[in-house]
């Protein structure tokens, strides 16, 4: 009995652990990257679009992999050692970590601080990286240099320089259609050392040569730092650069590289992920904001999903997913929070109250929307109605998501909308799950922060279903003691709780008529085998029901509609519909 009385507390603690950023305590593999500017991290000042391909790697691996990029502008294999950069890296390498090694661009330079010779000093430095990595139990991987965009035949066998200039600074030679090598024997050293020492070798030069040659002299400029004057504050006079990559180029080349890595290192291959777009506040993605990524999705992209990874961070923005942006999958890393702080009584630009609908942090109108590991938050606090997520879309699927707020947290708005929430956490105070939609909550954690009402459905007359909760846990803050399962926003409200664990904060009567005696005749409020301290079937309001069986209340039946949508069986697979 003692264990039973403490069970809600145990459930709360368990849920806290489940929804905490516990991954920090989970062992992970680190990929250390060492190399030059084509691989390195870049400053973001002034809207700088330059990126190294190594900077973009985190968006291509699951969170079991941590990328620690030490590649730096202007460094050769020699200067990376003499400046103490290698010592800093190798001191952190542990057993099972990887070290990605790519040098060559600056080893070609003639100054004594950086120059090495292929076949001798360059090879010796590569051997040192390999040997010392292995001595620490790490796994070295050798790469040769990415190609320069050089469609002009060299006049002699000398190594070309990393030419970058402002547009019009000098007349450039006329380009042909053939891409010419500029690295010479510096491409061979990583290959030779890898063969000699039994190390995996990734032929980055071939990967990028094939890419750039395939695009040709005009289209390939889209990969590199070709900036028009007056477009970007970081380069007010513009930039013409055949060596360094922009955001698109670095993301494209990083994607090709991880596929090559997966092909040769199956142990890493299982962690590789590909997304159409990546959102990241640190510049490691395609965009800095979620709305930018949404806007980039082609309108009415049929029969295929557009996948968007949201990297860890708090994104304060008001997000709108319009009807034309169909079939979006929004995937969050742990700690990806979409937040805003509007509320119903806050004034808009015309001095009018925003209203409940206008307060939402996120609006979802497009069908076949899927979200995973995303936190939807309204951070306005206890200021009245303040919606975290407004869902009008049909066939909306939320998995392992969190919905944080106070009053009116989750607005299931669409009258023709079917919504499915699996293993989600939803918290609030009053009516914090409300609206017209048919919505299924499967194995969700529903948490009351104050006395109030969990749901306020406004189910239309004639609808077979409203809200159905399966195997959910209902918990509350310690001082909360008076919570109803539901009250009817509209007279035909429906809410059914099936096999749910109800905390002691749920009142014995369970259901409230919102002062609408006539609504008792039209609402359908029911439970099936509720358990926990808040389960009290004999004391429930007289207008509620205790189901004898679940016939007709299977999840697939509730959500089927006319197209047979079944997210439990089919996951986020799209329903074939004619548009």
TL;DR?
The protein has about 575 residues and is an alpha/beta fold.
Could you please describe the fold and organization of this structure?
Pathway: Glycan metabolism; pectin degradation; 2-dehydro-3-deoxy-D-gluconate from pectin: step 1/5. One of its GO terms (molecular function) is pectinesterase activity. The protein is α/β, with parallel strands linked by helices. It has 3 domains: 29-269, Rossmann fold (3-Layer(aba) Sandwich), CATH 3.40.50.1110; 275-413, Pectate Lyase C-like (3 Solenoid), CATH 2.160.20; 426-565, 3 Solenoid (Pectate Lyase C-like). Helices cover 19% and strands 26% of the residues. The protein contains 13 helices and 33 strands. The strands form 4 sheets. Strands 12, 13, 15, 16, 18, 19, 21, 22, 24, 26, 28, 29 and 31 form a 13-stranded parallel β-sheet that branches. Strand 4 (98-102), helix 5 (121-135) and strand 5 form a beta-alpha-beta unit. Helix 5 packs across helix 6 (188-197). The two termini are 57 Å apart. The model is unreliable at 1-24 (pLDDT under 50).
Please write the CATH class name of the largest domain. Alpha Beta
Calculate Rg over CA atoms: 29 Å
Please estimate the helix content. Answer: 10-25%
- Total strand count, please? 33
Tell me what portion of residues adopts beta-strand conformation: 25-35%
Tally of discrete structural domains: 3
Topology-level CATH name of the largest domain = Rossmann fold
Principal-axes geometry comes out as elongated
Question: Which blocks of ≥5 consecutive residues have pLDDT under 50?
Answer: 1-24
Q: Termini distance?
A: 57 Å
CATH architecture annotation of the largest domain: 3-Layer(aba) Sandwich
Number of helices: 13
Give the class from helix and strand content and strand pairing: alpha/beta
Average pLDDT works out at 93
The CATH H-level homologous superfamily of the largest domain: SGNH hydrolase
Q: Quick one: biggest sheet?
A: 13 strands, parallel
């Amino acid at each position: 009995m003692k264990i039973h009385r403490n069970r809600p507390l145990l459930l709360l603690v368990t849920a806290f652990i489940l929804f905490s950023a516990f991954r920090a305590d989970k062992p992970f593999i680190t990929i250390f990257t060492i190399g030059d500017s084509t691989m390195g991290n870049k400053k973001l000042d002034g809207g700088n679009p330059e990126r190294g391909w190594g900077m973009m790697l985190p968006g291509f691996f699951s969170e079991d992999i941590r990328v620690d990029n030490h590649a730096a502008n202007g460094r050769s294999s020699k200067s990376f050692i003499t400046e103490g950069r290698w010592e800093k890296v190798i001191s952190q390498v542990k057993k099972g970590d990887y070290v990605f090694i790519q040098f060559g661009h600056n080893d070609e330079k003639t100054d004594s601080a950086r120059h090495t010779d292929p076949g001798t000093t360059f090879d010796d430095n590569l051997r040192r990286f390999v040997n010392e990595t292995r001595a620490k139990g790490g796994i070295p991987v050798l790469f040769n240099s990415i190609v320069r965009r050089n469609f002009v035949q060299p006049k002699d066998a000398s190594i070309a320089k990393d030419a970058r200039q402002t547009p019009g600074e000098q007349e450039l030679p006329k380009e042909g259609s053939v891409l010419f090598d500029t690295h010479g024997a510096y491409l061979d050293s990583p290959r030779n050392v890898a063969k000699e020492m039994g190390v995996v070798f990734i032929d980055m030069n071939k990967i990028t040569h094939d890419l750039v040659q395939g695009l040709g002299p005009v289209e390939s400029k889209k990969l590199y730092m070709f900036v028009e004057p007056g477009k970007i504050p970081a380069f007010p006079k513009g930039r013409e650069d055949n060596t360094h990559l922009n955001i698109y180029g670095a993301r494209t080349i990083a994607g090709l590289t991880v596929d090559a890595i997966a092909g040769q290192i199956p142990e890493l291959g299982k962690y590789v992920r590909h997304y159409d777009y990546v959102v990241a506040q640190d510049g490691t993605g395609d965009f800095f904001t979620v709305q930018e990524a949404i806007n980039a999705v082609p309108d009415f992209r049929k029969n295929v999903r557009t996948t968007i990874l949201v990297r860890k961070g708090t994104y304060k923005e008001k997000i709108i997913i319009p009807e034309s942006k169909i079939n979006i999958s929004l995937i969050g890393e742990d700690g990806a929070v979409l937040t805003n702080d509007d509320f119903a009584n806050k004034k808009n630009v015309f001095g009018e109250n925003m209203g409940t609908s206008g307060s939402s942090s996120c609006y979802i109108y497009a069908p076949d929307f899927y979200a995973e590991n995303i936190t939807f938050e309204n951070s306005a606090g206890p200021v009245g109605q303040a919606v975290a997520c407004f869902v009008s879309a049909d066939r909306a699927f939320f998995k392992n998501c969190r919905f944080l707020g106070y009053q009116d947290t989750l607005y299931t708005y669409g009258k023709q909308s079917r919504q499915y929430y699996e293993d989600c956490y939803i918290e609030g105070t009053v009516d914090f799950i409300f609206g017209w939609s048919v919505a299924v909550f499967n194995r969700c954690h529903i948490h009351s922060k104050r006395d109030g009402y969990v749901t306020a459905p406004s189910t239309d007359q004639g609808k077979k279903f409203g809200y159905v909760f399966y195997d959910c846990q209902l918990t509350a803050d310690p001082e909360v003691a008076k919570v109803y399962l539901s009250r009817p926003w509209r007279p035909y409200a429906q809410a059914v709780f099936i096999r749910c664990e109800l905390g002691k904060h749920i009142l014995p009567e369970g259901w409230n008529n919102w002062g609408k005696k006539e609504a008792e005749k039209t609402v359908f409020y029911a439970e099936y085998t509720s358990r926990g301290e808040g389960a009290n079937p004999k004391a429930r309001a007289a207008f509620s029901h205790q189901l004898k069986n679940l016939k007709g209340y299977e999840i697939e039946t509730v959500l089927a509609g006319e197209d047979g949508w079944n997210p439990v069986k089919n996951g986020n697979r799209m329903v074939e519909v004619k548009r």
